[in-house]
Amino acid sequence: MFFHQRFVPGLAIYSYIVGDEKTKEAAVIDPTRDVDELIEIAKREGLHIKHVLETHVHADFVSGSREMKDRLRDGVTIHASGLGGADWTPPYADHVVQDGDEVVMGSVRLKAVHTPGHTLEHVSWALFDDSRSTDTPWLLFTGDFAFVGDVGRPDLLGEEARKELAHQLYQSVFGKLTPLPDFTEIFPGHGAGSLCGKAIGSRASSTLGYERRFNAALVEKPEEEWIGDLMDQMPLSPPYFARMKRVNKEGPKIIGRELPGQRRWSARQIHERTCENCLIVDVRLKESFAAAHIPGAINIPFGSTLPTWAGWVLPYGRPMLIVVDDPAQMPEVTTHLLRVGFDDIQGYLEGGMDGWQTSGYEMATLTTMPVHSVPDRVADVTVLDVRTEKEWNAGHVEGAIHIHGGKLQENFELVPRAKPVVVICGSGYRGSIAASFLKREGYEDVTNVLGGMAAWKAAGLPYETSERNGDSSCRASATAATCA
What we know:
Strand content: 15-25%
Distance between the termini: 59 Å
Radius of gyration: 24 Å
CATH topology of the largest domain: Metallo-beta-lactamase, Chain A
Helix content: 25-40%
CATH class of the largest domain: Alpha Beta
Structural class: alpha/beta
Strand order of the largest sheet: 1-2-3-4-5-6
Number of domains: 3
Number of strands: 27
Number of helices: 14
Largest sheet: 6 strands, mixed
């Protein structure tokens, strides 16, 4: 049997290729939209991809099923669950999967196991190697049902749906998994960093037996208590999740072999707004953005978390122009954005900010500040903390206001305009994103704190924590924090 696991950092997505080495038939499970790597791997191994299997309608990335079928054009069958009813059955499915349906490739057999809870229609795929055992699965591809160290969250369809999905998830965890032996290997749809669970481990796989023993979500307890523990401190889900659900349910646009966004735009074209209504997204380092940027640009520094934060904060439906340090980054930048459904990428600034500068056009800057300078100014500024609630609770600047960075655009009215705004996050990355939005919104005096709360704590500066049952003040030292 051929097996390959592919990992996409940032979004923390696992996709898989499995195949029969005699028949040379293969299946791809949960592909992302950028399918070239998977196709090349199959080609290199002499395999023919005949099937694309989905575990569910994804919320955090655009499915690559249609892209894969269009690219190969040789009888690929898309298998997608119909177990959530007509509303959650993708119209592009060639085979609408029911519980127990099988996909056979020589001695390799994949069987659908309905595991609702994360979503109504969710199926896991149990893999049998019939040359070894016809009645005991070797592997289980669990999608977003079960992870290493966690299970999938049931709250992505709203509060009313959450109640029913949480009940179904409980039934799936302590019903559908029960007959499977401890030695069954589980291969999830996500790893650490995904927002589809709250405690996903960094290991790429596990065994069911190990998870039963050490995964808190697989320890059986009364249903109401289990659900309460599961939902406790569940992180916010980005608003783009709802859009991805719609896109994947209806059918994503096919991109084709040629990546969009590779056209060069001169500084003059951008300055004269040749690209009407274009949003300028600057993916350079936060330090470079602070030194000089196009007025009104949004900074999301290039890296694995770019697609997650793009989904959090950028508007859909607007064309984009990108500012990069190096044009060679554009294929990867475009791929990051395509994975979360930003299809209208018009191109990039030719010559980067050097080209803009030498053209004599207006430039904006963003003030930065080391953590040691903040305490002297706290009384005269608004300190805005844009981290998660969990991070905030673990320690924040006394007197700061807290707004999750992904929610800032909905809550500008909570940020006073009468005083300068000092933005702090974990390291400065999210602070730069938030600060760029504040500047775009018309806040004139905005500063990003270099190093964020990581530097604050390392410097031994005082902070306070917010416990679940009340607040307590802490004064940090270089090695510890003492709370009263």
